[in-house]
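stage 2 :: seqdesign
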């Protein structure tokens, strides 16, 4: 599968996969390799100012079947908080691997 973007679809309670700007699937869980974490400042500002739902942050990478290791760190994004992805409370912009689980949690490797 080519490079894709992943974000949480809050109404459907699943992860949306986009390729080339177009949603190609909704999945319960997915893992990505070579991950770049992208926050779109304009979208983030609209979410904060208008309190509306909008995709303002995505994880970009290549889907993989790699299992999540026991030492993975919790990955979070809160548009009303810091406005950056955090892994165990520390800002992060990229990761070797990331896992997006069926329960809505996200995890990243130590890379």
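stage 2 :: out
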């Amino acid at each position: 599968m080519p490079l894709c973007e992943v974000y949480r679809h809050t109404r459907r309670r699943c992860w949306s996969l986009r390729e080339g700007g177009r949603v190609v699937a909704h999945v319960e869980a997915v893992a990505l390799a070579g991950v770049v974490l992208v926050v779109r400042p304009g979208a983030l500002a609209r979410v904060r100012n208008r309190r509306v739902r909008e995709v303002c942050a995505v994880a970009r990478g290549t889907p993989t079947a790699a299992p999540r290791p026991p030492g993975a760190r919790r990955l979070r994004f809160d548009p009303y908080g810091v406005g950056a992805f955090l892994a165990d409370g520390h800002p992060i912009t990229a990761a070797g691997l990331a896992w997006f689980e069926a329960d809505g949690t996200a995890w990243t490797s130590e890379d």
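stage 3 :: structure notes
- The mean pLDDT is 93.
- The CA atoms of residues 57 and 85 lie 8 Å apart.
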